[in-house]
């Protein structure tokens, strides 16, 4: 556009467009493009930040690996892993995982990853079903998505498509029955967020001081509807989910990774397909992305 005085129409257009662009630049949390760390794995999933390193699973190869920002590539730290698929950490050296081979929840120390302890493997005398991901709450309980993942439907000993809670004594209780293919789970304070994979939705509910569910699970965000609204194309179910320190929500979904505010407002979209994500690094501004056949990272603002 040439120099000179802008017409009234041009001025109005600039006044309208510029604030919209500035809003996107300020709120979009992703910085630059994802950087591939390594590919060639069987099926990567379940990343978590332990306080010193990222841990993630190669479920197909029955292996758990670790990667520190700045390292050339991940290193194998646990094999066999029970074909682990979900991970969480207390930030004090203890890692919790879903063991899909034996349909149980286990924990192990970073200093001794081969020495796993079984936290729970049954409910009311019946073997746990197909679990996927898990999150650790500050009350010490582990919350796990539970449906028919990675198991034969004929092998299920009870029906529960929702979340299970494993308290510090190993007691299992059932929460949020009736969720549709619950997959990822994350907490911000006492608010839980659970992804419904095929439906592309994020559901939410509250946890009380005693660790029990205090309200009904309600719809927080419909990522399929949001993708249509924003004109974002691409495949992908609502899978891995994490919250940052400010309560913003990051979730895999249609066409890549979504960022939402604590109120569900759209913050940004990264057009990069992933199976799961974890937030970490020294400042909490590094996102590790498992991609199925590989692992990558991207910086956050």
Q: How many H/I helices?
A: 2
Note the gap between the termini: 32 Å
Helix fraction bin: under 10%
Chain oligomer state:
single chain
Assign the CATH superfamily.
Answer: TolB, C-terminal domain
Topology:
Elements: H1 8-27, E1 30-39, E2 44-49, E3 54-58, E4 63-67, E5 75-78, E6 87-89, E7 94-99, E8 104-109, E9 112-120, E10 122-123, E11 126-127, E12 130-136, E13 142-147, E14 162-166, E15 172-175, E16 182-188, E17 191-196, E18 201-206, E19 218-222, H2 223-230, E20 241-243, E21 249-253, E22 256-260, E23 266-270, E24 276-280, E25 286-290, E26 294-300
Antiparallel strand pairs: 1-26, 2-3, 3-4, 4-5, 6-7, 7-8, 8-9, 10-11, 12-13, 13-14, 14-15, 16-17, 17-18, 18-19, 20-21, 21-22, 22-23, 24-25, 25-26
Please provide a written account of the structure.
- The chain is built from two helices and 26 strands.
- The protein is 9% helix and 46% strand.
- The model is unreliable at 1-26 (pLDDT under 50).
- It is globular.
- The chain has helices at 8-27, 223-230; strands spanning 30-39, 44-49, 54-58, 63-67, 75-78, 87-89, 94-99, 104-109, 112-120, 122-123, 126-127, 130-136, 142-147, 162-166, 172-175, 182-188, 191-196, 201-206, 218-222, 241-243, 249-253, 256-260, 266-270, 276-280, 286-290, 294-300.
- The chain has a single domain (32-300), classed as TolB, C-terminal domain (Neuraminidase, 6 Propeller).
- With 301 residues, the protein is mostly beta strands.
């Amino acid at each position: 556009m040439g120099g000179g005085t802008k017409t009234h129409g041009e001025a109005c257009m600039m006044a309208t467009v510029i604030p919209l662009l500035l809003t996107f630049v300020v709120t979009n949390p992703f910085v630059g493009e994802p950087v591939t760390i390594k590919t060639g794995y069987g099926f990567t999933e379940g990343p978590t930040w332990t306080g010193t390193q990222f841990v993630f699973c190669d479920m197909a190869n029955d292996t758990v690996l670790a990667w520190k920002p700045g390292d050339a590539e991940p290193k194998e730290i646990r094999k066999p892993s029970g074909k682990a698929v979900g991970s969480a950490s207390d930030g004090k050296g203890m890692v919790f995982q879903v063991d899909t081979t034996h349909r149980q929840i286990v924990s192990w120390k970073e200093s001794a990853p081969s020495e796993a302890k079984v936290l729970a493997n049954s409910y009311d005398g019946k073997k746990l079903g197909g679990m996927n991901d898990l999150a650790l709450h500050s009350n010490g309980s582990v919350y796990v998505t539970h449906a028919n993942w990675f198991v034969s439907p004929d092998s299920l000993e009870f029906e529960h498509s929702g979340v299970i809670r494993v308290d510090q004594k190993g007691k299992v209780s059932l929460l949020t029955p009736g969720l549709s293919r619950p997959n990822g789970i994350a907490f911000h304070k006492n608010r839980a967020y659970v992804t419904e994979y095929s439906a592309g939705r994020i559901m939410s509910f509250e946890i009380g001081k005693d660790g029990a569910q205090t309200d009904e699970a309600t719809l927080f965000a419909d990522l399929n509807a949001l993708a249509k609204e924003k004109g974002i194309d691409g495949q992908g179910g609502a899978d891995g989910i994490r919250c940052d320190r400010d309560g913003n929500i990051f979730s895999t979904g249609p066409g890549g990774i979504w960022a939402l505010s604590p109120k569900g407002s759209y913050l940004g979209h990264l057009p990069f397909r992933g199976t799961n994500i974890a937030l970490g690094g020294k400042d909490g501004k590094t996102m590790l992305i498992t991609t199925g056949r590989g692992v990558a990272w991207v910086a956050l603002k």
